[in-house]
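Here is one chain, start to finish.
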Amino acid sequence: MVTCKNLHENKNIEIIESKGDVKVLEYKKDLSVDAVNAINAYYAAQMNVRKRQVLIELKGNAYTISAGAMQWTTGSVSMTADIKGVGDLLGKALASKATKESAIKPRYQGTGLLMLEPTYKHILVEDVSDWGGLVLDDGLFLACESRVQQKVVARTNLSSAMLGKEGLFNLCLKGEGIAILESPVPRDELIEFVIDKDEVRIDGNFAIAWSDSLEFRVEKSSKSLLGSAVSGEGLVNVYRGTGRVLMAPIA
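Its structure:
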């Protein structure tokens, strides 16, 4: 039996989000800085620059995480490579080149606790079933329940691949389960568009995640070349159909 002290009762750690087996911990202050860096650390904390960690309570289920993301585990927890054979390994290696995600993601299963490495990025905990299919921008994936399907989706047209600056391929999560994402901005700053047989036009690659039911294209900001030139916008990313888009205020 393992007793974990100075974690749940630590007054410097706050649980800022909890969903299912997942808790997001945030350190109010960085207590391990020296005198030289104390001023910078103080003002960084005031501006919401804080260390965050994800704590997962395993109850016989399994989670797949990014390579190198595990910090520690307790209890009867085992790790296996999420690979089914040589063919699967080659396929995932090719997919990793396309999506910039790790080719082999470790799978942790059992009964106990799984703590991920600390990060200064912001943590999003999403229910994949709420999205139908969740397409992620490069580098957003941190972990997910292993029952969630991970697929690589390609652009439906060449224009979006060449001009959209979102890449030719993206990781898509489908099915039911929890997904844990690393966002460049906090949830409070993300704008969520809920689209019902309509469209959203975004000038630049500000969208960090969107429903795979949406058609993504790159189009002129105006129907005419003159109009696009006068507006100064040129080409815009268009998300059309029915679904959702998460947009960050910074690229």
